[in-house]
Specification:
With 415 residues, the protein is of the alpha+beta class. The chain has 2 domains: 248 residues, FAD/NAD(P)-binding domain (3-Layer(bba) Sandwich), CATH 3.50.50.60; 156 residues, Helicase, Ruva Protein, domain 3, CATH 1.10.8.50. The protein is 30% helix and 25% strand. A hairpin with a 3-residue loop joins strand 14 and strand 15. Helix 1 runs parallel beside helix 11.
Length: 415
């Protein structure tokens, strides 16, 4: 029976351990934190968006960071395999808007409990609070790892699944990059992905905590359109967040990295009423103004905007909030229409990597066999999950990548 040592107890590491054990390996899982699966507990706002119900091409297209590298792993352990795995272990799933798949209980804790139960059933030895310090290598193979506490663990194959460098409180503090680099692997520079954005405008603070649905947000870099997304967003004290912003942040982060510190103008443009043309929106506003004809401007937009936004939008449109509705000029009304569909924010940059949902960058995919997750430099080393230079948008794609690469690494580690 082949001895397999998995380093890292996140989604990828747990699935790697399960896969290796299911295929006949004697598996030990080392985790630096007091328990495994800690980052999973906070995913999907505590609900855990475990995968997406799209097809294979959809999975790859939604992995802007080296999605094509994952073709084989996604094929070996599909999104349907993920759902079947949880169903087989007693946790049913459901599909929501955008193909997002959640546990039917809406509890991330149930996902973690299911994975832990599978580890126990397969008799995987889980050793917690044992961060790895270094590998011992001879003749192109790893013979053992040594932990911070100077404990030593030998194995026939080793799977590195230590996660990224985001949410360090959950254990994802970048240890795997140091370990992989020490073994000669190239580490693509790290940057935040799926992260809130900071903006310059001070008025944003007046909207802190306000959530908007069914808006369209677009990113422009040096005046050129880069990407746009439709969905939900959230205003914060420093800028903007929410699903739409997190997806767009990948493009912001990538653009800034390519600039190498050169000055760039990045603008976020929000269309509060994307389903309407300017003409239709103008007609809608005119109907509202007929309804509120005896009111002042600051009290005439309650049917159109959240209360928190009214003063801000009136101010940005350069309209006197005390002006009676019936005195509003056509030019002012059209200015308001334009403002509602072109709320422009100056992006200063992304929040720190420690606040990102996902880490972009990591172990170069050029040095990993995409069909097996085997290192091309160290014959008995395998990689899984976020430690690899792959990353995706929100919607379950990153967890699918973790489960697929984990399963693939575990499967081939016992060959």
């Amino acid at each position: 029976m082949k001895k397999i040592l998995v380093i890292g107890g996140g989604a990828a590491g747990i699935m790697a351990a399960i896969s290796a054990a299911e295929h006949g390996g004697k598996v030990t899982l080392l985790e630096k934190m007091p328990s495994v699966g800690r980052k999973l507990l906070i995913t999907g706002k505590g609900r855990c968006n475990i995968t997406n119900n799209c097809d294979l091409d959809g999975l790859i297209q939604n992995m802007p960071g080296n999605g094509s590298f994952l073709y084989s792993a996604f094929s070996q352990f599909t999104n349907h395999d993920v759902r079947e795995f949880f169903h087989r272990h007693g946790l049913l799933t459901k599909v929501e808007r955008g193909g997002r798949v959640f546990p039917i209980t809406d509890k991330a804790a149930d996902v973690v409990a299911t994975l832990r139960l599978a580890l126990r059933k397969l008799q995987v030895s889980v050793v917690t609070e044992h961060p790895v310090k270094e590998f011992t290598v001879s003749d192109g193979k790893i013979s053992k790892v040594t932990t911070i506490a100077n404990s030593e663990y030998g194995a026939d194959a080793f799977i590195l699944a230590t996660g990224g460098a985001s949410y360090p409180g959950t254990g994802s503090s970048g240890d795997g990059y140091r370990l992989a680099s020490a073994l000669g692997h190239t580490i693509i520079p790290l940057r935040p992905s799926l992260v809130p954005l900071e903006v310059e405008e001070e008025w944003i603070k007046d909207l802190q905590g306000l959530s908007l649905k069914n808006i369209r947000a677009a990113i422009f870099a040096d005046g050129k359109p880069v990407a746009s997304e439709f969905g939900e967003m959230l205003f914060t004290h420093f800028g903007v967040s929410g699903p739409v912003i997190l997806s767009l942040s990948e493009h912001v982060s990538e653009f800034l990295a390519a600039q190498n510190g050169n000055k760039s103008d990045i603008t976020l443009e929000i269309n509060l009423k994307p389903a309407l043309t300017a003409e239709v929106l103008d007609q809608r506003i005119q109907r509202d103004f007929e309804k509120f004809i005896r009111k002042r401007m600051k009290n005439a937009l309650n049917d159109l905007l959240p209360v928190k936004m009214i003063d801000v939008m009136i101010d940005l449109a350069h309209i006197d909030p005390e002006k009676p509705v019936h005195q509003l000029k056509k030019s002012e009304r059209l200015r308001l229409v334009h403002q509602l569909q072109h709320v422009c924010l100056t992006v200063k940059g992304a929040r720190p990597l420690s606040e990102a949902v996902v880490t972009a960058g990591g172990v170069s995919t050029k040095e990993i066999n995409s069909k097996t997750m085997n290192s091309k430099l160290i014959s008995n080393l395998y990689f899984a999950g976020e430690v690899i230079d792959v990353n995706g948008y929100t919607g379950g794609y990153n967890l699918q990548a973790a489960f697929s690469t984990g399963y693939t690494a575990g499967l081939h580690s016992v060959d």
